[in-house]
Amino acid sequence: MTNRRSFLTGAALIGAGMVTKAGAASLPEAPVQSSAATQPPLSPPNGRPYNPVVTLNGWTLPWRMKDGVKEFHLVAEPVVREIAPGMTANLWGYNGQSPGPTIEVVEGDRVRIFVTNKLPEHTSVHWHGQRLPNGMDGVTGLTQPGIEPGKTFVYEFVAKNAGTFMYHPHADEMAQMAMGMMGFWITHPKDPALHAVDRDFVFLLNAYDIDPGSYTPKINTMTDFNLWTFNSRAFPGVDPMVVRRNDRVRIRAGNLTMTNHPIHLHGHSFEVTGTDGGWVRPSARWPEVTTDIAVGQMRAIEFIADEPGDWAFHCHKSHHTMNAMGHQVPTMIGVDHAGVAQKINNLVPGYMVMGDKGGSMGEMKMPLPENTLPMMTGDGPFGGIDMGGMFTTVKVREGLARNDYKDPGWYRHPKGTVAREWTGELPPSPRAPGAPPPKPDEAMNIKRDGDMHHQH
Ligand SMILES: [Cu+2]
Q1: CA of 243 to the centre of ligand 1 (A)
Q2: 295 CA distance to ligand 1 centroid (A)?
Q3: What pLDDT is stored for residue 372 in this prediction?
Q4: Angle at CA of residue 215, ends 40 and 177, nearest 5°
Q5: Ligand 1 centroid distance, CA of 329 (Å)
Q6: Please, are residues 281 and 203 in contact by the beta-carbon 8 Å criterion?
Q7: pLDDT band at 333, cuts 50/70/90?
Q8: What is the pLDDT of residue 13?
Q9: Ligand 1 centre distance from Cα of residue 228 (Å)
Q10: Which of 30, 98, 255, 341 is the most exposed place for a label (fewest CB within 10 A)?
């Protein structure tokens, strides 16, 4: 048996080390999650108390307490992840899902993480943002040898600083992160009253390049990804964040894509209260409705959810709120394509000309190749929501129970509070100085050249 003393003089001092045969016999269980649905927060069964987080379309990894040490077991392995209903992806992840489970500990906890590699190539785990001994930092070649297929390594350190962190491999990173290997890490403050909120949501921003009709991401893609996801889910596959009116809400997002994401909340203003470097002093906070999260960064935002409704929450890069089928499609606004559909149909059976009055496809249902998602698809109470990708809603409702995260359905707007068609007399609409007067029937006919090919 590995006792604490031999552990400290062995693995802990030289860095992350391979688990011996004797040690392997006593590995903690490695729980597996098969569902992509948001799991309820995991209340700590032992150890110091804390207020658990809710991982959007994810879960928290249970641990085993052994001689005062929190022991976790991560298994790096190929997984099948449902990106949204109708599309699954062959990814790499941890314990049955991508992203891996969230790890929650308390400031001052001694933590031991066993990592078993069931991938076909070596890996490692880097604990992004943590203060720890250099040999536990998980950089293959620099601070440890790679964990070869079939091997288990152990990492052990004290979670020194409360805050928001991530984990991901530092081994063949471009491939392994493009395949979905990443997870969230929360170190809660020792005092549960410190930075306390009513609801605390976490998720990672990630991106994949999966050709329609295929299942595995193209790992050599550098910038032109076609699926932009919250925790490896694309809208309408992303669950809503359900909160009670007047709750203080925290949302923590980490960016492990290859580009920045300006994350925008409707109907409220928030403050950035934390980064992966720690908590932001109250005097250094300012109100925002959008915060840019750069590559490798994490932001915690906080607000009082005082406005009931279904509020959009999304990346403000519009190409990041659409799914795979929207890419590489030419702009057709203003193009008269009478006859074009027939010609294209001879080449591509089932082709539909899209968007001669704009790009909206929210109302369209078109036949798709196997295993992909239409560009924008969610159905709302008023019709199609022209959104996909990095989009969801914050649903603010009166009088929910403290731990109630169930989707309450669509918001029922009070009478007279919804934008509506106007059929009465119109006020004058002045034109910009010098603008030619509109031609009565051609005002909508905008001609644009170029296409929707985009740079990220
Ligand atoms: Cu984005």
Answers
A1: 24
A2: 11
A3: 78
A4: 65
A5: 19
A6: no
A7: low
A8: 40
A9: 7
A10: 341
| Whether residue 54 has pLDDT greater than 70 | yes
pLDDT digit string, tens, across residues 336-371: 555 655 665 566 555 555 555 555 545 455 566 777
Contact indicator for 181, 199 with CB cutoff of 8 Å? no
Question: Stretch 285-291: mean pLDDT, rounded?
Answer: 97
Degrees, nearest 5: CA angle 153-33-36: 125
- Mean pLDDT, residues 449-453: 41
Report the distance separating Cα 442 and Cα 439, nearest Å.
6
Helix ranges (H only) for 316-437 are 340-347
Cβ–Cβ < 8 Å for 152, 111: no
Integer Cα distance of 76 and 289 in angstroms: 37
Q: How far is the CA of 59 from the centre of ligand 1 (A)?
A: 23
Query: CA torsion 72→75→76→82, rounded to 10°?
Result: -100
| Ordered DSSP codes for 155-206 | EEEE--S-EEEEEE-SSSHHHHHHTT--EEEEEE-SSTTTT--SEEEEEEEE
**Considering the chain, what is the average pLDDT of its residues?**
86
If you ran DSSP here, which 8-state letter would residue 12 be given?
I
Q: Which range has the worst mean pLDDT, 24-28, 116-120, 126-130?
A: 24-28
List the end-to-end C-alpha distance of the chain, in Å, as a whole number: 52
Dist. CA 369 → ligand 1 center (Å): 25
| Burial of residue 199 (number of CB atoms within 10 Å: 0-12, 13-18, 19+) | buried
Give the distance (Å) from ligand 1 centre to CA of residue 430.
36
- Position 5 pLDDT exceeds 60: no
Q: How far is the CA of 17 from the centre of ligand 1 (A)?
A: 38
Pick from 285, 299, 315: which is nearest to 388 by CA? 315
Question: Which residues crowd ion ligand 1, with CB under 5 Å?
Answer: 261, 315, 317, 320
Ligand 1 centroid to 406 CA: how many Å? 27
| Amino acid in position 34 | S
Paired tokens of 166: 């991530």
pLDDT at 70 over 50: yes
Tell whether the model's pLDDT for residue 99 goes beyond 90: yes
